[in-house]
């Protein structure tokens, strides 16, 4: 996944196509989820990542397979960029037993131990202490791994944000905090909830080196992530990125967006991650329209396969309702 | 053709109100276009189309309340890829591993309410049968005394004045409606009395038997073979009873007679019968009868007792079909084995309902009774 | 009643909020997205426009912070209505609620009271998965110093808030999230406020006492209806107040019917149903013709798929089965 291990982004055609494909995959996947939700296939809450794709895709380039990821309820993009199978994610959205979390969690609770993907959390700010702990374990056991924690700017208001940053800095832990600042915590704009809306400064207040990044530019995101991760791996302690981004859709499906202006949304759409990157790559001649067509076709196929998989996957039997509440004793694990 | 349905936009959205169409029939539609604006409890939300096509027909008008899933527009184009849902069957999981209040095997499960009611009614709870799940509950206690409701059980006891009135009315009715016939025999009960004397000699004073006890038992056992004398006649139908629940005629304080019943006299042992009889007489004297005891009798025994009279012609208590009257026991000269002896003789009269039985039934009964009573130890 | 009108539960809450803001200038509403967004459940739609942002305050995502601030404001003479979006997020504020709001009067030897009202949505049934579906009312009902109410009817949703605001002590008000769309009757004119202490008999009956609260009331009434078809006459009690519990109403019913089934959406172990069952045993043991039955959620975090969520929570079928168990039929 990582096209280079140093801080420079190797912008060769192959890598560019890879970045574009990942973002388009997320985009189309989320659009398909919106359609399926409207048709009542996906239920509960659905939080779409449309407009924010560059963040997950860019940051993942800097991470290794054995690094850990903690995310939020808006985590489909992170899961896809991390390499979780789209079919399993879709099955999870449907609630089928073949889903990433056996169907038990749904949209907000995607987990995958194989990819060290620790969810999927519906409590804003709830993932930060978890990330701190994962990093602490690595440090205490002498493992050189990074824990990357994604969260929205709304989490900056929670006490857990402050406690987690303080601990990470105090104990010099290998955490990459990535704040995806999309300007709105559900219906509340940042300037109405933060006395200091400069989130990267909050981190500096805890002596954590932080950087503000253009979250709509996947190359900028990748570069910033590489810089941060290099420092973390060198033992320099936690790092903080504030990615300025925007969600083109409502907070969740059932949101009339009374709190923001359509004009504002349209403005951000014009500088969206996919359209900007595509335009730039076409202009520079690095890719052709036909490349995009091929990507769209492949992505469409992948998603179609995922939907069919989810549709046909069986439901978990009701008799298994109370399994996976507690861990079975060791000797049983062998049998099961 | 594509059916465009009112989308579900949220966990608790049941319907939406169409505010306006943003496209009209004939418009070319691209995937992602906003088709209409829908008002929900959260506010106005734009709804999008998920496929390309041409809008052919709008099925809802502004102002319509449309439930989620109902078709609101038709488009010409390729079908969407959304498949019909397969719903899982829902079978309710048993609420928990039932940890029932198990007691030692063999010990009956009696509910607190049942225990309390039984106590109020003066019933022995250990005699009450459990239901099919092994529990003795309110219903089982109520069933064993059907006339008594929990509310009644609280009251002091039967109103004897009312009861006498009722008996008088019943006797009048009996004489009017039941065609009585009478058959009697004088029976040598010496063997019974000898047995009694011997039996009582080995008993403590408190446990001594009055002759009525073995007498009633023999009467009951003999009755078992003459079912047409034991049961109820109601609405032109005779229902023979399974057991002999004998009403025992007992004199009340202040005059009058009442005949509360003892259940299954034939099946009881001598001592069980003794205890029941003593208890019953005691309660009649103290005015503590239960209504069920007054209505359960399937036949009545009227024993005059000592120093009374030789014979009686008793009246049947409806809806019973017979009553057996026993006179006092007197010493009489009696022919036994071709010789005259002094024997203890008792006159027994059977009154029967001629609609159900006739003299021959009574005669058969008396004949068998005599056989039993003259055999050693009665039976 | 002088005449009634029909409202949804949501509209009743909104009217109650509006009335409180109009009637008492010390009252203000504070919570996440109560203002611009109109309320996560649309209960405060239009109130920001009407009363301004001092009295309808959007807060940052700081449950502990703003709940604590509400407690302080109450101490300082205001009458705050703190809205915590759901009981799930209240866990972030549990320290403030339990360690400050509930204890302040006692710890100060009676010098201070905390007249705060904290409203929360609660419950499962909308496939929102494990972190959004808790029914933790019993945790709050466990704590001395708190009053806990659960309006299940539209009339109670309309009427409990004003009474709660008059109460000098903290009142936690639970609104089951599936009730917001329900319609019900409210008085057409005059005082709509109601008491906070008494349970209500929603259906009179003689064979068994069904005791429940909040989102389970509807299912319990449905179960009673179904059983009536089989000749089983159920009495349905809506607890309304979870702390204190109305023992008198409960025991009066159970001594009449001799049987009790408690329907409680909390998990069975350590449930409020367990507390009620213990009280029935203590106060009405000799009246019981069967062990007290409990219909609660299964021992599993609430799952996302619909069939599993239904299996995990009380349903009409499980209530009917429990009633039959007490009747041994």
Describe what you observe in this structure:
The complex is a heterotrimer of chains A (336), B (379) and C (329). By secondary structure, chain A is α/β, with parallel strands linked by helices. Chain A has a single domain (13-335), classed as Rossmann fold (3-Layer(aba) Sandwich). Chain A has helices at residues 13-38, 53-60, 76-82, 86-94, 127-140, 159-170, 190-193, 199-204, 218-233, 262-270, 273-283, 289-312, 330-335; strands spanning 68-70, 147-152, 175-181, 184-185, 188-189, 209-214, 239-244. In chain A, the strands form two sheets. A five-stranded parallel sheet of chain A has the order 1-2-3-7-6, with helices on both faces. In chain A, helix 2 packs parallel to helix 9 (218-233). Chain B has helices spanning 112-121, 138-144, 150-153, 160-177, 190-201, 212-223, 270-286, 291-295, 359-374, and strands at residues 2-5, 15-21, 28-29, 34-40, 43-48, 53-58, 65-67, 71-76, 109-110, 135-136, 180-188, 231-234, 237-240, 246-248, 250-251, 257-258, 261-262, 299-303, 322-336, 339-353. In chain B, strands 11-20-19-18-14-17 form a six-stranded mixed sheet. Chain B has a four-stranded antiparallel sheet with strand order 1-8-6-3, with no helix packed on it. The termini of chain B are far apart. Chain C is of the alpha/beta class. Chain C has helices at 9-23, 47-51, 63-75, 87-90, 94-101, 104-107, 137-141, 154-166, 217-228, 247-257, 272-284, 306-312, 316-327, and strands at 4-8, 27-31, 56-58, 79-86, 117-122, 147-149, 171-176, 183-187, 200-203, 208-212, 234-238, 241-243, 260-267, 293-297. In chain C, the strands form three sheets. Chain C has a seven-stranded mixed sheet with strand order 3-2-4-5-7-6-12, with helices on both faces. Chain C has a five-stranded mixed sheet with strand order 9-11-10-13-14, with helices on both faces. Chain C has a two-stranded antiparallel sheet with strand order 1-8. In chain C, helix 9 packs across helix 13 (316-327). Chain C is globular. The N and C termini of chain C lie far apart (40 Å). The chains are: A alpha/beta (336), B alpha+beta (379), C alpha/beta (329). The A-C interface holds A 43-45, 95-96, 103-106, 108-109, 121-126, 154-160, 185-189, 192-194, 258-259, 315-316, 318, 321-322, 325 and C 32-33, 36-38, 40, 58-65, 88-89, 92, 126-132, 298-301, 303-308, 311-312.
């Amino acid at each position: 996944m990582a096209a280079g291990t140093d801080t420079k982004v190797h912008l060769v055609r192959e890598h560019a196509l890879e970045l574009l494909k990942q973002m388009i995959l997320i985009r189309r996947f989320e659009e398909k989820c919106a359609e399926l939700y409207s048709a009542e296939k996906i239920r509960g809450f659905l939080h779409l990542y449309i407009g924010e794709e560059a963040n997950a895709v860019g940051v993942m380039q800097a991470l290794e397979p054995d690094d850990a990821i903690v995310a939020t309820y808006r985590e489909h993009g992170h899961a896809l960029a991390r390499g979780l199978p789209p079919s399993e994610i879709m099955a999870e959205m449907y609630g089928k037993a073949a889903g990433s979390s056996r169907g038990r969690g749904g949209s907000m609770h995607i987990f995958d131990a194989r990819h060290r993907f620790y969810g999927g959390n519906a409590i804003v700010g709830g993932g930060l202490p978890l990330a701190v702990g994962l990093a602490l374990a690595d440090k205490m056991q002498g493992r050189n791994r990074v824990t990357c924690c994604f969260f929205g700017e709304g989490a900056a208001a929670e006490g857990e944000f402050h406690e987690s940053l303080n601990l990470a800095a105090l104990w010099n832990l290998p955490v990459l905090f990535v704040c995806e600042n999309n300007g709105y915590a559900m219906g509340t704009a940042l300037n109405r909830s933060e006395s200091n809306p400069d989130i990267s400064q909050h981190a500096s207040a805890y002596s954590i080196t932080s950087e503000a990044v253009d979250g709509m530019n996947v190359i900028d995101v990748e570069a910033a992530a590489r810089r941060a991760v290099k420092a973390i791996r060198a033992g320099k302690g936690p790092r903080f990125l504030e990615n300025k981004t925007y969600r083109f859709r409502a907070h969740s499906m059932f949101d009339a967006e009374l709190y923001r202006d359509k004009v504002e949304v349209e403005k951000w759409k014009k500088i969206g991650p996919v359209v900007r990157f595509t335009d730039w790559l076409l202009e520079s001649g690095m890719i052709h329209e036909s490349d995009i067509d091929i990507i769209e076709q492949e992505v469409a196929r992948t998603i179609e396969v995922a939907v069919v998989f989810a549709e046909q996957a069986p439901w978990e039997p009701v008799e298994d309702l109370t399994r996976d509440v507690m861990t079975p004793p060791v000797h049983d694990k062998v049998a099961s | 053709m594509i059916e465009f349905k009112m989308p579900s936009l949220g966990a608790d959205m049941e319907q939406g109100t169409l505010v306006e169409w943003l496209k009209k029939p004939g418009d070319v539609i691209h995937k992602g276009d906003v088709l209409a604006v829908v008002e929900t409890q959260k506010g106005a939300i734009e709804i999008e189309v998920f496929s390309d096509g041409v809008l052919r027909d709008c099925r809802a008008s502004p102002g319509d309340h449309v439930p989620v899933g109902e078709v609101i527009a038709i488009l010409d184009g390729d079908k969407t890829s959304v498949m019909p849902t397969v719903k899982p069957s829902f079978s309710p999981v048993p609420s928990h591993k039932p940890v029932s209040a198990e007691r030692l095997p063999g010990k009956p499960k009696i509910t607190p309410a049942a225990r309390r009611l039984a106590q109020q009614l003066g019933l022995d709870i250990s005699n009450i049968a459990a239901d099919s799940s092994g529990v003795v509950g309110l219903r089982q206690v109520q069933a064993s005394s059907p006339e008594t409701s929990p509310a009644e059980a609280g009251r002091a006891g039967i109103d004897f004045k009312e009861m006498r009135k009722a008996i008088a009315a019943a006797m009048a009715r009996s004489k009017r409606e039941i065609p009585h016939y009478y058959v009697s025999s004088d029976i040598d009960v010496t063997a019974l009395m000898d047995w009694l004397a011997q039996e009582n000699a080995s008993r403590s004073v408190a446990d001594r038997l009055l002759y009525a006890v073995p007498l009633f038992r023999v009467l009951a056992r003999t009755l078992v073979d003459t079912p047409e004398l034991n049961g109820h006649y109601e609405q032109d139908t005779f229902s023979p009873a399974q057991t002999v629940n004998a009403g025992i005629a007992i004199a009340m304080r202040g005059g009058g007679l009442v005949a509360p019943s003892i259940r299954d006299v034939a099946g009881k042992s001598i001592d069980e019968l003794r205890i029941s009889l003593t208890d019953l007489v005691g309660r009649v004297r103290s005015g503590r009868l239960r209504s069920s005891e007054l209505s359960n009798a399937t036949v009545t025994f009227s024993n005059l007792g000592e120093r009374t009279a030789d014979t009686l012609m008793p009246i049947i208590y409806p809806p019973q079909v017979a009553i057996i009257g026993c006179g006092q026991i007197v010493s009489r000269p009696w022919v036994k084995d071709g010789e005259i002896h002094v024997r203890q003789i008792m006159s027994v009269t059977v009154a029967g309902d001629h609609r159900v039985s006739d003299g021959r039934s009574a005669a058969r009964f008396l004949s068998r009774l005599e056989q039993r009573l003259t055999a050693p130890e009665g039976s | 009643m002088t005449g009634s009108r029909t409202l949804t539960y949501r509209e009743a809450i909104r009217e109650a909020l509006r009335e409180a803001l109009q009637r008492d200038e010390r009252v203000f509403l504070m919570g996440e997205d109560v203002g611009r967004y109109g309320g996560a459940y649309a209960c405060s739609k239009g109130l920001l426009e009407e009363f301004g942002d001092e009295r309808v305050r959007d807060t940052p995502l700081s449950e502990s912070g703003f709940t604590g601030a509400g407690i302080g404001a109450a101490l300082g003479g205001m009458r705050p209505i703190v809205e915590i979006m759901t009981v799930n997020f209240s866990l972030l504020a549990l320290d403030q609620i339990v360690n400050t709001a509930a204890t302040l009067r006692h710890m100060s030897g009676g010098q201070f009271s905390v007249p705060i009202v904290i409203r929360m949505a609660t419950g499962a049934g909308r496939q929102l998965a494990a972190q959004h579906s808790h029914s933790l009312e019993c945790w709050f009902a466990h704590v001395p110093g708190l009053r806990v109410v659960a309006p299940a009817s539209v009339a109670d949703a309309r009427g409990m808030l004003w009474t709660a605001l008059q109460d000098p002590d903290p009142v936690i008000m639970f609104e089951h999230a599936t009730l917001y769309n329900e319609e019900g009757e409210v008085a057409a004119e005059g005082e709509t406020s109601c008491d906070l202490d008494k349970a209500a008999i929603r259906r009179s009956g003689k064979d068994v006492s069904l005791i429940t609260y909040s989102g389970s009331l509807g299912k319990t009434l449905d179960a009673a209806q179904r059983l009536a078809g089989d000749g089983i006459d159920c009495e349905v009690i809506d607890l309304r107040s979870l702390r204190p519990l109305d023992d008198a109403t409960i025991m009066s019913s159970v001594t009449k019917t001799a049987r009790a089934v408690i329907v409680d959406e909390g998990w069975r172990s350590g449930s409020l149903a367990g507390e009620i069952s213990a009280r029935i045993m203590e106060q009405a043991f000799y009246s019981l013709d069967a062990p007290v039955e409990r219909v609660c959620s299964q021992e599993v975090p609430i799952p996302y798929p619909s069939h599993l969520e239904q299996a995990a929570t009380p349903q009409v079928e499980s209530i009917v089965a429990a009633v039959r168990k007490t009747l041994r039929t």
